[in-house]
Amino acid sequence: MAGRIAYSVMTTSYGDELKKSGKIIFTIKGVSMRPLFRTDEDAIFVVACDPEKLKNLDIVLFYRVTSSRGEQYVLHRIVGRRPDGKFIIAGDNCIDWDIVDPKDILGVVKSAQRGNKPIKLTGFHYALYKHLWCKPYRFRSLMIFLRNNIRRVGSKVKRICKKIIHKG
Question: Whole-angstrom Cα distance, residue 80 to residue 100?
Answer without folding.
Answer: 11
